[in-house]
């Protein structure tokens, strides 16, 4: 190839770009068409042709040129954005797909060059706008269809609709140690399905009196940090609550053993606990404690160790500003109202109030497990304890 011919595409591109900037769209179109013929794999040439055709009102030709650009580079941000804008002008619902594609392509780029920041912001706004409109139309139609069928809407159904519309994120069960398969993923359990809950809630005043009595007698000093470092074990978790009594524990049962010095101070509470289906595994469970969270404390998001149990909270002292999240659902503790949840789903808690929050924390068997399955699971953990020659740590 001669020197003059090798320079021809570059010269033509300069002329085409100048024509586009000076709004000589017809001339720009002709120049970019020549460039596309000469270098069909160059995304810039296809894009320039698309911009020129769009300015001339040639929608079909502009879209064809954009398709050529995407064929040359499927992740080009400008081509994806222009495709989305052209489809939006046509009233096509596919526009939303391309606005979202801009955002996905931007994520893959990593650090966005400054000249593309406005483009990405526009794509984000457009994607959200289309998402809200689609959600509005979807919910309206769903409402109509459900009304026609005379069906009742459940909490689980509403959650599924929120997930579909992107208003919530699905949080799976992720046990850190042991997973029993084929159990349903439920964040908070309906306490009405557990006949022992109402009697426990009715005993709140009795349990709280014993708690306040031991606190008045200096029992707060017996609360130990719930998270404690162990020099004999790897310390991978970096958490300000480790060895910190901002999250304090007063154990009545710990790792399957009754803590006599504490239990004797709370005889009525211990009697009430005997009526619960506590998970009992020698050397492991139950663990029952008064859990105290000081003002300003935040228990970071984490997962529990095993999914064969549920964790229960009986709120005893709850100031304003306390909250608790399991998965995608946030609840406020209410005194004398039990919460039952799967702690293998990501969860966190906080106290933004001005005084301590205290709950009675306990663990019960999951109701889906049969008696034989419970015994078999216990056999696994008794074997683990025997082989390791220590009880390990489950935590709650």
Q: Could you explain the architecture of this structure?
A:
With 396 residues, the protein is an alpha+beta fold. The chain has two domains: 129 residues, Serine Threonine Protein Phosphatase 5, Tetratricopeptide repeat; 189 residues, Jelly Rolls (Sandwich), CATH 2.60.120. Helices cover 46% and strands 14% of the residues. The protein has 13 helices and eleven strands. Strands 1, 2, 3, 4, 6, 9 and 11 form a seven-stranded antiparallel β-sheet that branches. A four-stranded antiparallel β-sheet has the order 5-10-7-8, with no helix packed on it. A hairpin with a 2-residue loop joins strand 7 and strand 8. Helix 2 runs antiparallel to helix 3, helix 3 runs parallel beside helix 5 and helix 6 crosses helix 7. It is elongated, with a radius of gyration of 31 Å. 30% of the residues are buried. The N terminus is likely disordered.
Give the DSSP E fraction (strand runs of 2 or more residues).
Answer: 5-15%
Shape annotation: elongated
Distance between the termini: 74 Å
DSSP strand count: 11
Broad CATH class of the largest domain: Mainly Beta
Going by helix content, strand content and strand pairing, the class is alpha+beta
Number of helices: 13
The helix/strand order is HHHHHHHHHHEEEHHEEEEEEEEH
């Amino acid at each position: 190839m001669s020197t003059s011919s090798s320079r021809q595409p570059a010269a033509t591109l300069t002329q085409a770009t100048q024509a586009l900037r000076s709004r000589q769209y017809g001339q720009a179109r002709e120049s970019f068409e020549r460039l596309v013929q000469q270098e069909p794999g160059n995304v810039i040439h296809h894009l320039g042709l698309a911009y020129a055709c769009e300015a001339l009102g040639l929608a079909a030709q502009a879209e064809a040129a954009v398709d050529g650009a995407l064929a040359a580079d499927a992740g080009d941000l400008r081509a994806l954005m222009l495709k989305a804008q052209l489809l939006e002008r046509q009233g096509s619902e596919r526009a939303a797909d391309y606005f979202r594609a801009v955002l996905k392509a931007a994520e893959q780029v990593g650090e966005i060059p400054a000249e593309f920041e406005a483009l990405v912001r526009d794509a984000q706004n457009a994607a959200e706008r289309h998402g809200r409109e689609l959600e509005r139309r979807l919910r309206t139609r769903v409402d109509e269809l459900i009304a026609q069928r005379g069906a009742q809407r459940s909490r689980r159904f509403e959650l599924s609709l929120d997930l579909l519309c992107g208003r919530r994120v699905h949080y799976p069960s992720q046990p850190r140690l042991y997973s029993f398969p084929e159990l349903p993923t439920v964040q908070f359990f309906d306490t009405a399905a557990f006949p022992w809950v109402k009697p426990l809630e009715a005993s709140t005043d009795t349990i709280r009196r014993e708690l306040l009595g031991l606190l008045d007698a200096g029992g707060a000093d017996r609360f130990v940090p719930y998270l404690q470092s162990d020099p004999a074990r790897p310390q991978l978790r970096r958490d300000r609550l480790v060895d910190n009594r901002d999250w304090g524990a007063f154990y009545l049962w710990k790792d399957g053993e009754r803590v006599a010095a504490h239990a004797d101070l709370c005889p009525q509470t211990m009697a009430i606990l005997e009526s619960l289906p506590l998970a009992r595994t020698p050397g492991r469970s139950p663990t029952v404690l008064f859990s105290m969270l000081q003002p300003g404390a935040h228990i970071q998001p984490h997962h529990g160790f095993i999914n064969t149990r549920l964790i229960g909270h009986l709120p005893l002292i709850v100031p304003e500003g306390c909250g608790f999240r399991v998965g995608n659902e946030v609840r406020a503790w209410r005194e004398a109202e039990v919460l039952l949840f799967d702690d293998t789903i990501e969860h966190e808690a906080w106290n933004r109030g001005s005084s301590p929050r205290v709950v009675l924390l306990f663990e019960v068997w999951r109701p889906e497990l049969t008696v034989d399955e419970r015994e078999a699971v216990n056999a696994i953990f008794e074997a683990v304890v025997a082989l390791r020659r220590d009880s390990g740590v489950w935590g709650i």
